[in-house]
Design the sequence.
Protein backbone atom coordinates (compact mmCIF):
# COMPACT_ATOMS: atom_id res chain seq x y z
CA UNK A 1 0.00 0.00 0.00
CA UNK A 2 1.53 3.31 -1.09
CA UNK A 3 2.15 6.18 1.31
CA UNK A 4 -0.15 8.45 -0.71
CA UNK A 5 -2.99 5.89 -0.60
CA UNK A 6 -2.68 5.61 3.19
CA UNK A 7 -2.75 9.38 3.54
CA UNK A 8 -5.83 9.75 1.34
CA UNK A 9 -7.67 6.88 3.05
CA UNK A 10 -7.18 8.34 6.52
CA UNK A 11 -8.06 11.84 5.33
CA UNK A 12 -11.32 10.60 3.76
CA UNK A 13 -12.37 9.32 7.19
CA UNK A 14 -11.04 12.10 9.43
CA UNK A 15 -11.96 15.23 7.47
CA UNK A 16 -15.77 14.70 7.51
CA UNK A 17 -15.66 13.92 11.25
CA UNK A 18 -13.66 17.08 11.95
CA UNK A 19 -15.94 19.25 9.81
CA UNK A 20 -18.98 17.84 11.61
CA UNK A 21 -17.49 18.70 15.02
CA UNK A 22 -16.72 22.24 13.84
CA UNK A 23 -20.12 23.05 12.34
CA UNK A 24 -22.30 21.57 15.11
CA UNK A 25 -24.24 24.25 17.03
CA UNK A 26 -23.55 22.33 20.22
CA UNK A 27 -19.92 23.15 21.07
CA UNK A 28 -19.57 20.41 23.71
CA UNK A 29 -18.48 17.71 21.20
CA UNK A 30 -15.97 20.17 19.74
CA UNK A 31 -14.59 20.96 23.21
CA UNK A 32 -14.30 17.25 24.01
CA UNK A 33 -12.53 16.71 20.69
CA UNK A 34 -10.03 19.50 21.45
CA UNK A 35 -9.39 18.03 24.89
CA UNK A 36 -8.82 14.56 23.44
CA UNK A 37 -6.43 15.90 20.79
CA UNK A 38 -4.46 17.78 23.46
CA UNK A 39 -4.19 14.69 25.67
CA UNK A 40 -3.06 12.49 22.76
CA UNK A 41 -0.64 15.16 21.55
CA UNK A 42 0.84 15.65 24.99
CA UNK A 43 1.38 11.91 25.24
CA UNK A 44 3.51 12.16 22.09
CA UNK A 45 5.35 15.22 23.41
CA UNK A 46 6.26 13.31 26.57
CA UNK A 47 7.45 10.35 24.50
CA UNK A 48 9.59 12.53 22.21
CA UNK A 49 11.19 14.34 25.13
CA UNK A 50 11.96 11.11 26.98
CA UNK A 51 13.49 9.57 23.87
CA UNK A 52 15.60 12.71 23.50
CA UNK A 53 16.90 12.19 27.04
CA UNK A 54 15.16 15.19 28.58
CA UNK A 55 14.31 15.08 32.32
CA UNK A 56 10.55 15.31 31.81
CA UNK A 57 8.21 14.38 34.66
CA UNK A 58 5.12 12.79 33.04
CA UNK A 59 2.85 13.65 35.99
CA UNK A 60 3.57 17.37 35.55
CA UNK A 61 3.01 17.20 31.79
CA UNK A 62 -0.30 15.35 32.21
CA UNK A 63 -1.48 17.84 34.81
CA UNK A 64 -0.75 20.64 32.37
CA UNK A 65 -2.67 18.87 29.61
CA UNK A 66 -5.68 18.71 31.92
CA UNK A 67 -5.57 22.16 33.51
CA UNK A 68 -4.34 24.52 30.78
CA UNK A 69 -7.19 23.87 28.29
CA UNK A 70 -9.71 24.11 31.13
CA UNK A 71 -8.60 27.72 31.71
CA UNK A 72 -10.00 28.70 28.33
CA UNK A 73 -13.37 27.08 28.97
CA UNK A 74 -13.94 29.54 31.83
CA UNK A 75 -15.03 33.18 31.85
CA UNK A 76 -11.67 34.41 33.20
CA UNK A 77 -9.53 32.78 30.51
CA UNK A 78 -6.23 34.64 30.67
CA UNK A 79 -6.41 35.45 34.39
CA UNK A 80 -6.96 31.76 35.15
CA UNK A 81 -4.18 30.74 32.75
CA UNK A 82 -1.73 33.21 34.34
CA UNK A 83 -2.56 31.78 37.77
CA UNK A 84 -2.05 28.20 36.55
CA UNK A 85 1.24 29.12 34.86
CA UNK A 86 2.63 30.74 38.03
CA UNK A 87 1.52 27.73 40.08
CA UNK A 88 3.24 25.36 37.64
CA UNK A 89 6.52 27.29 37.82
CA UNK A 90 6.44 27.19 41.62
CA UNK A 91 5.41 23.53 41.68
CA UNK A 92 8.19 22.43 39.33
CA UNK A 93 10.80 24.22 41.45
CA UNK A 94 9.28 22.58 44.52
CA UNK A 95 9.48 19.10 42.96
CA UNK A 96 13.10 19.69 41.95
CA UNK A 97 13.96 20.97 45.42
CA UNK A 98 12.98 17.63 46.98
CA UNK A 99 14.56 15.44 44.29
CA UNK A 100 17.67 13.32 44.88
CA UNK A 101 19.96 16.04 43.53
CA UNK A 102 18.19 19.44 43.64
CA UNK A 103 21.16 21.39 42.29
CA UNK A 104 21.84 19.24 39.20
CA UNK A 105 20.55 20.74 35.93
CA UNK A 106 17.95 22.80 37.79
CA UNK A 107 17.29 25.30 35.02
CA UNK A 108 17.05 22.54 32.41
CA UNK A 109 14.67 20.51 34.58
CA UNK A 110 12.38 23.46 35.23
CA UNK A 111 12.41 24.65 31.60
CA UNK A 112 11.73 21.19 30.18
CA UNK A 113 8.80 20.51 32.49
CA UNK A 114 7.18 23.92 32.08
CA UNK A 115 7.41 23.38 28.33
CA UNK A 116 5.94 19.87 28.58
CA UNK A 117 3.06 21.07 30.74
CA UNK A 118 2.15 24.28 28.93
CA UNK A 119 3.32 24.45 25.31
CA UNK A 120 1.03 22.09 23.41
CA UNK A 121 -2.07 22.54 25.63
CA UNK A 122 -1.78 26.32 25.27
CA UNK A 123 -1.13 26.43 21.53
CA UNK A 124 -3.91 24.02 20.60
CA UNK A 125 -6.33 25.77 22.97
CA UNK A 126 -6.30 28.66 20.50
CA UNK A 127 -8.46 26.50 18.22
CA UNK A 128 -11.10 26.56 20.96
CA UNK A 129 -10.63 30.33 21.39
CA UNK A 130 -11.19 30.77 17.65
CA UNK A 131 -14.47 28.84 17.96
CA UNK A 132 -15.66 31.43 20.48
CA UNK A 133 -15.17 34.39 18.13
CA UNK A 134 -18.02 35.78 16.01
CA UNK A 135 -18.34 33.42 13.03
CA UNK A 136 -15.68 31.28 14.72
CA UNK A 137 -16.88 28.17 12.93
CA UNK A 138 -15.97 29.73 9.57
CA UNK A 139 -12.59 30.98 10.80
CA UNK A 140 -11.64 27.48 11.96
CA UNK A 141 -12.69 26.04 8.59
CA UNK A 142 -10.66 28.81 6.91
CA UNK A 143 -7.63 27.85 9.01
CA UNK A 144 -7.90 24.12 8.37
CA UNK A 145 -8.56 24.56 4.64
CA UNK A 146 -5.51 26.82 4.25
CA UNK A 147 -3.19 24.55 6.27
CA UNK A 148 -4.39 21.37 4.57
CA UNK A 149 -3.93 22.94 1.13
CA UNK A 150 -0.44 24.11 2.07
CA UNK A 151 0.59 20.73 3.52
CA UNK A 152 -0.89 18.76 0.61
CA UNK A 153 0.66 20.88 -2.13
CA UNK A 154 4.02 21.00 -0.35
CA UNK A 155 3.98 17.20 -0.08
CA UNK A 156 2.85 16.53 -3.66
CA UNK A 157 5.10 19.09 -5.36
CA UNK A 158 8.02 18.35 -3.06
CA UNK A 159 7.74 14.59 -3.65
CA UNK A 160 7.50 14.97 -7.42
CA UNK A 161 9.73 17.94 -8.20
CA UNK A 162 11.73 18.59 -5.04
CA UNK A 163 15.41 18.89 -5.90
CA UNK A 164 16.75 21.62 -3.63
CA UNK A 165 16.83 20.65 0.05
CA UNK A 166 16.42 23.61 2.38
CA UNK A 167 16.95 22.14 5.89
CA UNK A 168 18.48 18.66 5.44
CA UNK A 169 19.81 18.64 9.00
CA UNK A 170 16.24 18.93 10.30
CA UNK A 171 14.11 17.26 7.63
CA UNK A 172 15.72 15.77 4.55
CA UNK A 173 12.46 15.62 2.58
CA UNK A 174 11.65 19.34 2.78
CA UNK A 175 12.53 21.05 -0.47
CA UNK A 176 12.47 24.60 -1.80
CA UNK A 177 9.98 23.53 -4.47
CA UNK A 178 7.61 22.08 -1.88
CA UNK A 179 8.04 25.14 0.35
CA UNK A 180 7.08 27.55 -2.46
CA UNK A 181 4.12 25.39 -3.47
CA UNK A 182 2.91 25.30 0.14
CA UNK A 183 3.18 29.06 0.59
CA UNK A 184 1.45 29.94 -2.69
CA UNK A 185 -1.18 27.19 -2.56
CA UNK A 186 -2.03 27.70 1.11
CA UNK A 187 -2.23 31.48 0.86
CA UNK A 188 -4.32 31.29 -2.29
CA UNK A 189 -6.71 28.79 -0.70
CA UNK A 190 -7.07 30.97 2.41
CA UNK A 191 -7.88 34.07 0.35
CA UNK A 192 -10.37 32.18 -1.81
CA UNK A 193 -12.06 30.61 1.23
CA UNK A 194 -12.35 34.01 2.93
CA UNK A 195 -14.06 35.68 -0.01
CA UNK A 196 -16.37 32.75 -0.63
CA UNK A 197 -17.61 32.22 2.94
CA UNK A 198 -16.47 34.91 5.38
CA UNK A 199 -16.16 38.28 3.62
CA UNK A 200 -19.84 39.22 4.06
CA UNK A 201 -19.81 38.16 7.71
CA UNK A 202 -16.49 39.65 8.87
CA UNK A 203 -15.33 42.29 6.35
CA UNK A 204 -11.58 42.92 6.12
CA UNK A 205 -9.56 44.87 3.58
CA UNK A 206 -7.87 42.94 0.78
CA UNK A 207 -4.42 43.82 2.15
CA UNK A 208 -5.32 42.50 5.60
CA UNK A 209 -6.61 39.26 4.11
CA UNK A 210 -3.40 38.74 2.12
CA UNK A 211 -1.13 39.53 5.08
CA UNK A 212 -3.11 37.36 7.49
CA UNK A 213 -3.37 34.44 5.07
CA UNK A 214 0.33 34.49 4.20
CA UNK A 215 1.35 34.76 7.84
CA UNK A 216 -0.75 31.83 9.05
CA UNK A 217 0.74 29.68 6.28
CA UNK A 218 4.26 30.79 7.25
CA UNK A 219 3.44 30.07 10.90
CA UNK A 220 2.10 26.65 9.91
CA UNK A 221 5.32 25.81 8.09
CA UNK A 222 7.33 26.89 11.14
CA UNK A 223 5.19 24.61 13.31
CA UNK A 224 5.94 21.73 10.95
CA UNK A 225 9.67 22.49 11.09
CA UNK A 226 9.58 22.79 14.88
CA UNK A 227 8.05 19.33 15.20
CA UNK A 228 10.65 17.97 12.76
CA UNK A 229 13.35 19.38 15.03
CA UNK A 230 11.86 17.57 18.00
CA UNK A 231 11.62 14.29 16.07
CA UNK A 232 15.19 14.61 14.82
CA UNK A 233 16.36 15.25 18.37
CA UNK A 234 14.50 12.13 19.51
CA UNK A 235 15.76 10.18 16.46
CA UNK A 236 12.31 9.06 15.34
CA UNK A 237 10.49 9.35 12.01
CA UNK A 238 6.98 10.03 13.37
CA UNK A 239 5.67 11.40 16.65
CA UNK A 240 3.31 8.41 16.89
CA UNK A 241 1.47 5.78 14.88
CA UNK A 242 -2.19 6.64 15.50
CA UNK A 243 -2.95 7.44 11.83
CA UNK A 244 -1.59 5.05 9.16
CA UNK A 245 0.47 6.99 6.61
CA UNK A 246 0.21 10.15 8.69
CA UNK A 247 1.99 9.28 11.94
CA UNK A 248 0.69 10.67 15.21
CA UNK A 249 -1.45 13.57 16.34
CA UNK A 250 1.51 15.95 16.25
CA UNK A 251 2.37 14.89 12.71
CA UNK A 252 -1.13 15.95 11.62
CA UNK A 253 -1.52 19.07 13.74
CA UNK A 254 2.03 20.41 13.98
CA UNK A 255 1.16 23.27 11.61
CA UNK A 256 -1.69 24.32 13.92
CA UNK A 257 0.68 24.84 16.86
CA UNK A 258 1.74 28.24 15.53
CA UNK A 259 -0.94 28.96 12.90
CA UNK A 260 -3.94 28.93 15.27
CA UNK A 261 -2.42 31.46 17.72
CA UNK A 262 -1.32 33.72 14.85
CA UNK A 263 -4.83 33.75 13.35
CA UNK A 264 -6.41 34.43 16.74
CA UNK A 265 -4.02 37.34 17.39
CA UNK A 266 -4.73 38.90 13.98
CA UNK A 267 -8.49 38.64 14.44
CA UNK A 268 -8.26 40.08 17.96
CA UNK A 269 -6.08 43.01 16.87
CA UNK A 270 -8.44 43.75 13.97
CA UNK A 271 -11.51 43.71 16.19
CA UNK A 272 -13.12 40.41 15.12
CA UNK A 273 -14.12 39.66 18.70
Sequence:
Amino acid sequence: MSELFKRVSVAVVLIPVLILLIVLDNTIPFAVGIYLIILLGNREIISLMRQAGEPVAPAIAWLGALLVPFCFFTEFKWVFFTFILVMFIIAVFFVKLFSKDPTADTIRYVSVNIFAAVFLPLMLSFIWLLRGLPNGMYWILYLFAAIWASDTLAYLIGSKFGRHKIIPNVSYKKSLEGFIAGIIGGTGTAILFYYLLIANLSPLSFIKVIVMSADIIAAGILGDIFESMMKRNARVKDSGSLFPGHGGVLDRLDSMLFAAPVLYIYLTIWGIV
Summary: Residues 28-131 form one domain. The CA atoms of residues 28 and 105 lie 42 Å apart. The two ends are 46 Å apart (CA to CA).
